[in-house]
Amino acid sequence: MVTGIRAEVKPGLWVQITAITDKAEAFHGFADWLMSVASSSSATTTPTTRNEW
C-alpha cells in the first residue's frame, strides 16, 4: 500500500516525509537504548551501594 501512496505524493514532499520518518525512528531507537541502560543500571544501584540513599 505504501507504493500507491508514494505514486500520489510529490517527490519533494516524499523527501520531507522520509526525513521526518528517519528522525522519528532514530529517536525511538535511542529511547529504547536509553531505557535498557537505565533498567540495567537500576539493578546495580541499590541503597547499600549508594551513599545518598
Q: Spans of 5+ residues with little confidence (pLDDT < 50)?
A: none
Q: Quick one: overall form?
A: rod-shaped
Instruction: Count every helix, treating DSSP H or I runs of 4 or more residues as helices.
Output: 2
| Helix/strand structural class | mainly alpha
Features:
53 residues; mainly alpha; 77% helix
Written account of the structure:
This protein is mainly alpha-helical and 53 residues long. The protein has a domain at 2-32. The protein is built from 2 helices and no strands. The mean pLDDT is 77.
Topology:
Elements lengths: L1 H7 L2 H34 L9
Quick structural summary:
By secondary structure, the protein is mainly α. Helix content is 77%, strand content 0%.
